[in-house]
Amino acid sequence: MDSDSRAAPEVCAFGVICRRFKPHLLMVLVHTCYTILYFTAEAAFNHGLNPHVMVTYRHFIGGLVMFPFAYVLERKVRPKLTLALFAEIFVLSLFGIGLTLNMYFASLTYTSPTFLASMVNTIASLTFVMAIILRLEHLDIRNPRGLAKILGTLFSLVGVMIMTSCKGPVIRNLSSPLIHIGRNNMHENWTKGSILTVASCITWSIWYIMQAFTMKRYPAPLSITTWMNFIGGAQSAVIAVIMQHKPEAWSFSVNIQLWSTIYAGVVCSGIMIFLLLWCTKQKGPVFVTMFNPLSTIMVAFTAYFVLGEKLYTGSIVGAVIAIIGLYLLLWGKEIDQQVGVKSQEQSNLTSEEQKEPTQIATSP
């Protein structure tokens, strides 16, 4: 009995911690899954899969996976889809899938997963600036939390710049690679790839900002995920037809091409988009984007330890600086949230006190 009584508070405390840090844990899971996608997609492209065809197929698969969950679980809470809302979701799909992912994965054929994952960190800075302009994010430079958010954004950006521009000495591989992914270096074009990556980061930032507005008007994340997958898949199909005229490009071999597309559709376009929408609703777009440095670190070290790619000291220094920036901004946002909760509680208490009837003392 004594051991049970001691274990009960520990279990309760663990549950409280899990509930409090649920968005943080989910974002770690999201970026772990996206790290796997970088390498499976690169392998599929090197085996002849067209990136626009992959984006099209993966989102139709994601829509089919999410449709039954959206239909059943949100049947009673899903708002009526008006023409204006449909147009908004169409634009949201365009920035989140149609434009962004087609440019993003096309740039992977010209660069490398490590470079792509590093450049994604600029999304946090862009989203933060847009959120400040649109007043989605509060910033007070006179408070330590405001300075922490500014410094965190700058540190993340500087870390990315170091990783992409300052290579430094190569760190010798400790062992032979565990997995070999054949690369076709003849398609490398870093200028073209960099332009596509930067453009995709800009549209991706707009997508994160738009999520906050759309979720308020249509608070059904499963349904939005389903709509985005189907609409984004259709948009990508149009792009794929324009960019790729060969009918054989739409066929698959039962190899990494097929498995990468299925994984991308079920996990990344289905489950991960839903988790991103949920975390955006709970914590805001800046919170979500500030976890992007995790993908950079995961991709860089996976490429080094598993695939045997070269790792430079500049990448390590940049990753450390980016992580410092991440924790600075998360600390600032956490303090902001605590202050907001306390002020809300105080305002609620004040309003309740005002509603209480005034008692008039009478003499006996």
Automatic annotation (TrEMBL):
Under the heading InterPro entries, the entry gives:
EamA_dom (IPR000620), EmrE-like (IPR037185), WAT1-related (IPR030184)
Q: Does Ribonucleoprotein show up as a keyword for this record?
A: no
Membrane topology term reads: Multi-pass membrane protein
Q: Which domain of life is it from?
A: Eukaryota
Instruction: Report the residue ranges that make up the EamA domain in this protein.
Output: 24-164, 192-330
* Cellular component annotations (GO), alphabetically ordered: plasma membrane
Subcellular locations according to the entry:
Membrane
* A molecular-function term among this protein's GO annotations: transmembrane transporter activity
**What SUPFAM superfamilies does the database record attribute to this sequence?**
Multidrug resistance efflux transporter EmrE (SSF103481)
Q: What is its main location?
A: membrane
| Region of interest (Disordered), residue spans | 344-364
Membrane-traversing stretches: 25-45, 57-73, 85-108, 114-134, 146-170, 190-210, 222-244, 256-279, 286-306, 312-332
Pfam families linked to this entry: EamA
- Keywords for this protein: Membrane, Transmembrane, Transmembrane helix
Asked whether the keyword Membrane is assigned, the reply is yes
The record's listing under PANTHER family reads: WAT1-RELATED PROTEIN
Q: Which family does it belong to?
A: Belongs to the drug/metabolite transporter (DMT) superfamily. Plant drug/metabolite exporter (P-DME) (TC 2.A.7.4) family.
Q: What is this protein called?
A: WAT1-related protein
Q: Which organism is it from?
A: Vitis vinifera
